[in-house]
Every structure is written in structure tokens, then in C-alpha cells.
């Protein structure tokens, strides 16, 4: 068992995410010892609720506010697991972290396991990989003498999982005050004979102003007695001490300089005394044979600390700050010039656009775009291809971002968004086809035809219907939304449900083309050969059991995704299981996350240009509230609705119907239920097939492979605008 010890103080806004991240892990042999350190907010009430619902949660309340060190001490005394993991109440675990830790502990028999982390923004929405030495450079199992680089790993409790017997042997005691994590870290590293690392993000470390060591005050002087504990505990009888002492000393001086170098941590009256103590500690613990002094500016700082030269230290800081300000000023000057140049360019392009609007509309030009110029995709791509066949006299031109131009198929003419060619095409095109709205400045010319193809059957509320759900609104300018929708001549819908929803969401004057979705023609007409080719292109064989996992984007909750462990899921699929993970297109510019452990069986296909090809390749779809379920249903294959946060999503974002009551297949409310369904091979039973049949009858009846043809004939050919071939 792994015991999580969680000190809790003024973290009511973050505590639920912390606890959920532990309790929702697929590895369930855990306990949570939450220590309410007399938190004045609602943290205690939150803890009581969790303890009432889950027997794995126990709550201890301190007699008075004592700080995180004594709180951890109380939690440790109550913990019963073989391993202990200290986690702060405002941080949270990555999915699959506990199982990965348990596997690593079993494989290495480590006494201390150092795990990877990422630094999270205060709102938890974005993060970067935590700094420090790369864990992948460590030996599989080592003592500190074998890999002393571990000294420079961030000295915090939450990135270490510790065998309880080691803690008992050390008889370590956390003390009150700040920087109590320093002696804890180095006591463990110096005592452990078996240390290992796990090179994956396991903990998200929230950076926030309310953290104790991020605030100003005399508490920062606690760094000195805590580093003194490290050096006073060194055992000179051990042969490795002579080698490790200089490296620990260098780390100590580095730490002092980092704290002193941050004026937000120390009021001006405290700074001279702090520096004096830095110098005293330097000489008190300077190794007899010296230590490896860093080079460059860092080495200069070390020498200033050694000489007690606070004035020079300050002068150096002021000089460096001045240099940085000059550089920033220079960059700001360059940025200001660039900004001015951009404004002039924008004015010039706006003028150019106005001039182009005076020229005649080109009766043979159609301009296409998809997903805010992300590339060649979706319904516009299907309409474009059919128009080339049925209306060859019409010249089709695509608008794409500059960074996506290379993704276009060969032979597809394009203009780059924001270029003169872009404005010329927008001004003169007879037809403008998009699956989202064109930008506000685009003018609807007399005689021009705007076709909104949309990009999904609506489950979540859209347009004016969002007014009933203010918490989920991202664009509150509904007048602007309606002005954009007012440019539509045609609105393409996939089914009667979509037609009805758009009437209330976008009550503008346009003609509805209830044709089915052109992009689904590919799915409706697919042959066994098409499926085989799609799988082969992804390196999949006919024997593979392929699942496509495609969660939706929660724009009202940045950074939130359904709890999902790819490694655990693919293990549940069995030896032939393969998992394709498709992120939402909103994340196409995000840095890729670290690959899962089962790299040969789990693939991130977020950048794949065609979701239709992914659907063809997959035997099963797992999704939450993504509109891909309506498209995948055309294939009449198993669909799993994974809806762990359905009540919150429904209440906050707003939906048009209860998809859990009228699902496209089986429903799983938790990740554990999802795994049970997979292991029991219960994804396509009689109940699932019945639900899917009803879903298909409601949403897929028009998907016969001719939707694009119906759109092209109505938009391009009905009024003689272009003639069919022959």
C-alpha cells in the first residue's frame, strides 16, 4: 500500500483536484491521510465529505496551525502503507502515476523513488516540465555516491516516494518553519542504499503566490538551521562523505543565493542580516578541501558570499538588472517598431481589401477554409472534392495558416491567411465555404454566397442558446455572433436534430441544407479495402484490436480532461490491443506531452490530418461529449460513452439532450467502469447494439454517401452558376 500524507491549509480551491487525482487512479491500494492544519477556509468541510464517501480517506485535525512540517509528521504517524508519498493539497497527480510508481517500486525495490514533475500555472491550465537534472540520466538503482547528480534534483517531499522502513530507521522528524524539506531530502538520499527514478510527469506542482516560501518575511531565515541540520548530520566515518560534502555545500550556497536574489522574499531591512548569515554558513561548513566553484556569474556570486561583500553583491545585481532592462528596452523598442510596422501593414492590407471589394465578384472563384485556417479538412474538404468533379469550372482556393500550408494535398491551390492574396480572394470570391465563421471584418458582398457547413452535430448548446449557461460562455458578444451568422446563405446540417438546434442557436435568415454531413460520405461508402488501407497507413494490422480515444475540449474548464490512463487501458484490451489518442484540434499548437510507457501500443494521433481515416481504422470509439460520436456511428461499430463529469458538464456548459440516457452504446461513469467493460468484452452486447441502432436512426439516417453531392448541386449548380461536365 502507498500512504499519501496531505497537509492541508487554505487550499479549498485546489483540494478536490488533489484528492480526486489520488482516488481516481486505477491503482487503488492507497490510503490518504489528510491533515487539516486548522485551515480557516472550507478545506475541513471538503475533507469530511471525502472521508464520508471513501474509506481510504482519513482526516486528522491539528490542535493549532503548526505548519506543513508538523502536519506531515502527524500524518506519517497515522500512515500504515509500505511506502509514503507526501503530496501538498494544492498539487495533483497525473493519470496513471500511482500504477507507474507501484510498478517501478516492485521492479527496483527502491527505498526512495524520485519522480518527475511539471510546474503548473496558478490556474492549473498550463505547465512546463520541471527543472533540474534529467532523470533519464540516472542509473536504474543507485546510492547517492553512485549518482551524486541527485543532489541537484528539486529538494521537496512530494517528488519522492519513500519506503516506510527507511523513514522508521532514520527516525526523521519534521520541524516547524520553512525549508523543512531540505533536511528531509538529504537525510533520505544520504541514508538510502537503493534509490531509483521514474522519468515521467507524476506530479503537477502548482506555482501560486500564496505558498509560504513565495511570500516575504523572516521565515526565510529558516533556511539556515535546516541546511545546518544537513551538514551536522553528515557521518564523516563513511568514505563517500568526503566526496559528497563539497557537492552538498555547492547546492547550499546556490540555494542561499536564489533566496537572497529574490527581493519579493525579503523586506529590505532583512536583507543585510540574511546575507551576513549566508557568509557565516559558508565559512562554518566550507569543506576542508574546498568545493567545485561554478564558473561565470554564478561563481562570482559564490565568491562574494565567501567575502561577505553584500554591497558588491547588490551592485552586481543592479548592474545585471540594468543590463536586462536595457536589453528588454531594446527588445521593447524593436517590438514597438515591429508593432508599428504590423499596424501599418494591417492598414495597408485593409485598404487593399477595400479596393478589391470594388472589383467585380469572380463568378468562378470559391474560397474554402476549415477550423480557423488549420488546414484541409472536414465538410469543406469534402465539398471541395465533389465540386471539382461536378462543377469543374469553379476554381477552388483554400485559406490556411502559414504554418499549415505544407499539410495541403498536392495540387490544392491556397492562400496564406493575412496575405494580400488572402484579402483578394475573400473580396472577390463568389462562394465562401467554411465550417466556422469568417472573421468579423469579412464583408458579405451582394451576389456572394456564404456556406456554413459546421463541424459537428451539436450536443453542447451553441449560439444564443448559451445565454442560459453563462458559466460556459467563451464569447459573450452575442450580437457579433449573430452578425457573423447573418452572412450565411446556406447552413448544412446532418440531421433533423441539428436543423432544429440551429434554428434557436442562430435565428438568422438562411437556407438550411439538411443533407447529411459531406465529411461522412467517406465513412458511409467505405469498403473493406478502405479500412485495410487506413489501418496499414497507421502501421496497424487486421489482427489488432484498435480503439480510438477522442475526448472533447472543455473550453469552460481550461486544462481539465477526463481521467484516463493510456497504459492501463491498453493493458485491459489484451495483447492485440492498440490505442489511438486523438486530442481536440484546439490543442494543435500545444507542446506534445511525454509518450506513455507502452509506446509500441499507444499512439498520439492528434496531429493526424484526417479524423475520418482514424475512424475507419478503429474498431471501437471511446469518447465523452465529442461530436465525433455522431460521425463514427455511421460505421455502425461499438461506441463507449465515457462520461465521468457529465453532471458538471451538463450544468455548466449546457447540452441539448441527455446523451447518457440516449447513448450511442455502453456508458461508463468512471475509469474503473470503463476498464471493467473492456476486460469483460462488454462493448458490443445486445443492449449496446440496441442503443446504437436508436442513435443511428436519429442522427445518421441521411448519411448515404451522397451528402457532398447534394450540397454541391444545390449551392453551385441549381441556379446555373456552373454547369456539370458533359
Structure in words:
It is found in: Cell membrane. Keywords: Cell membrane, Membrane, Teichoic acid biosynthesis, Transferase. Mean pLDDT is 89; it is low at 585-596 and 720-726. Helix 11 packs parallel to helix 13, helix 17 packs across helix 19 (611-617) and helix 18 (566-573) packs parallel to helix 22 (671-679). This protein is 39% helix and 16% strand. It is of the alpha/beta class. It is globular, with a radius of gyration of 31 Å.
Features:
726 residues; alpha/beta; 9-stranded mixed beta sheet; 7-stranded parallel beta sheet; 24 helices; 39% helix; globular; disordered C terminus
In short:
The chain is built from 24 helices and 22 strands.
Share in β-strands: 15-25%
Based on secondary structure, the structural category is alpha/beta
**What is the CA-CA span between the terminal residues?**
75 Å
Principal-axis shape equals globular
Rg is: 31 Å
Instruction: Flag low-confidence runs.
Output: 585-596, 720-726
Helicity, as a percent range:
25-40%
Report on the biggest sheet: 9 strands, mixed
* Average predicted local confidence, pLDDT: 89
How many helix segments? 24
Give a count of the beta strands, DSSP E runs of length 2 or more. 22
